[in-house]
């Protein structure tokens, strides 16, 4: 039985991925900051597989290191690492940007991937196996005004994924970089700091992607034959042409 560790597992894409992989008989280490949700997920998913929960903030290396080192020996071999945790805060121009928002995005979207991957790569190399899936965004493909720092953080994920592939392929480790387009999660609610009405407007007038759509893609990638590696995968809803262009009410 393979073991998968998923960061940001308590909502959205991470939660949908955990639910799907549990049905596919993966043992799961689900990570997040919401202890109550983690415990409920453990209860729900334990009907299908073994579940281990870790509560930490991906932005703090000391917390990441302590959590990972706390894993029992029989949970320390990870076959699949899904680096899903991330965030978007605010839509301000650079001159009006909030420094705390910038730190949250760069620490969560960039450093978080580096922190947790650093701790698992050595064992993957020694085992000569493993699969790292990094969740980027179509925002990495086209920068948009008032989202420059978020776009930059996701562009960094692309670069990190490419670098991982260059460093790890010879050791039998697969690396997948996945770029979702507009996906209806709590993403916009967080970005707009709890303004639910503004968040809803982002997804009105067209059919956005669902977290389960991205979970399906992740499942396809990690369950592909050993000789197949999906290196980069971009997924748009059918109404979206690129990061900045969505055709609402177009009958798509």
UniProtKB/TrEMBL annotation:
Domain of life the protein comes from? Bacteria
InterPro entries recorded:
NAD(P)-bd_dom_sf, Sc_DH/Rdtase_CS, SDR_fam
Name one molecular function that GO assigns to this entry: oxidoreductase activity, acting on the CH-OH group of donors, NAD or NADP as acceptor
> PROSITE patterns this protein is in?
ADH_SHORT
Keywords in alphabetical order: Oxidoreductase
According to its UniProt record, what is one Pfam family this protein matches? Answer: adh_short
PANTHER family, per this entry? ALCOHOL DEHYDROGENASE
UniProt record similarity statement: Belongs to the short-chain dehydrogenases/reductases (SDR) family.
Name used for this protein in its record: Malonic semialdehyde reductase
């Amino acid at each position: 039985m393979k073991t998968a560790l998923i960061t940001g597992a308590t909502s959205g894409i991470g939660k949908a991925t955990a639910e799907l992989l549990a049905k596919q008989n993966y043992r799961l280490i689900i990570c997040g900051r919401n202890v109550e949700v983690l415990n409920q997920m453990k209860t729900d998913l334990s009907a299908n597989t073994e579940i281990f929960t870790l509560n930490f903030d991906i932005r703090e290396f000391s917390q990441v290191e302590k959590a990972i080192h706390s894993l029992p020996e029989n949970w320390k071999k990870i076959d699949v690492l899904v680096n899903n945790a991330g965030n978007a805060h605010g839509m301000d121009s650079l001159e009006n940007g909030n420094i705390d928002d910038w730190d949250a995005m760069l620490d969560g979207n960039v450093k978080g991937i580096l922190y947790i991957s650093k701790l698992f790569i050595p064992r993957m190399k020694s085992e000569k196996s493993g699969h790292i899936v990094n969740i980027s965004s179509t925002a990495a493909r086209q920068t948009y005004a008032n989202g420059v720092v978020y776009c930059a953080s996701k562009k960094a994920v692309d670069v990190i994924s490419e670098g991982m592939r260059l460093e790890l392929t010879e050791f039998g480790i697969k690396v997948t970089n996945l770029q979702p387009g507009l996906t209806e999660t709590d993403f916009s609610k967080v970005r707009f700091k709890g303004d639910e009405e503004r968040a809803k407007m982002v997804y009105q007038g067209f059919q956005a992607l669902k977290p389960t759509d991205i979970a399906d893609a992740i499942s396809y990638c990690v369950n592909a034959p050993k000789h197949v590696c999906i290196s980069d995968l971009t997924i748009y809803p059918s109404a979206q042409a690129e990061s900045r262009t969505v055709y609402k009410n177009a009958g798509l």
